Amino acid sequence: MAIAHRIYAEALFGAAKDAGRLAPVHEALTDFAAAVAASPELRAVLRNPQLESSAKSAILADLAGDDEPLLTHFLQVAAEKGRAGEIEDIAKEFERLMALEERRLSVELTTARELSDSEADAILKQIEEAAGRKVEATRKVDADLVGGIVLQVGSLRVDASVRGRLERLRTELVKR
Fold first, then answer.
1. Residues 72, 144: one domain?
2. Count of the separate structural domains present in the chain
3. What is the DSSP annotation of 46-95?
4. For each of the chain's 176 residues, which pLDDT tens digit applies?
5. pTM of the shown model
6. SS3 139
7. Percent of the residues in the chain that have a pLDDT greater than 70, as a whole number
8. Looking at the structure, do residues 89 and 44 belong to the same domain, yes or no?
9. Which CATH number goes with the domain that contains 51?
10. Is the separation of the CB atoms in 9 and 15 below 8 Å?
């Protein structure tokens, strides 16, 4: 992630936190970034280097409306500074800051078969206890795992699958 995205996200995060408006700003920014992502035309306009910053600022102000003035002002400043086309990346960084603030941990849980809700909840509860944080999980099924689970948390990957164990055993046997 570029340093500029982090700086802008941290600035908005700090301002929202100081104003006691963290949750509403987060929701508004998430919705706005989703709208930009869903509209290739809007994304093209915001990323167009030939369109003046003041025009982009006016467009963003009109689209943001008056529901969340802090976000509206932020979008105008971002546009004036030539960062209008980076709103989606700024929103992703803001989301990361929110997860840290709320002590949330996003994980991807891959299993060899579909888990029941109670089985998944039991695994997630163990992860929450070990991490000391609230866990939000996405679940996938990969029959090639044979059994067990693979847990992906950011760049950390914990492979407790049968396939992973077999591969480690094969590697160990080849070394000897």
1. no
2. 2
3. HH-TTS-HHHHHHHHHHHHTTS-HHHHHHHHHHHHTT-GGGHHHHHHHHH
4. 478 889 999 999 999 999 999 999 999 999 999 999 999 999 999 999 998 998 988 888 888 888 899 999 999 999 999 998 999 999 999 998 998 898 888 899 999 999 999 999 999 999 889 888 888 899 999 999 989 999 998 788 999 999 999 999 999 999 87
5. 0.70
6. strand
7. 99
8. yes
9. 1.10.520.20
10. no
d(CA 72, CA 13): 14
H-helix or E-strand spanning residue 26: helix 22-38
Residues 84 and 111 in one domain: no
Contact 168, 148 (CB under 8 A): no
Q: Are residues 60 and 13 in the same domain?
A: yes
Q: So what's the pLDDT on residue 131?
A: 85
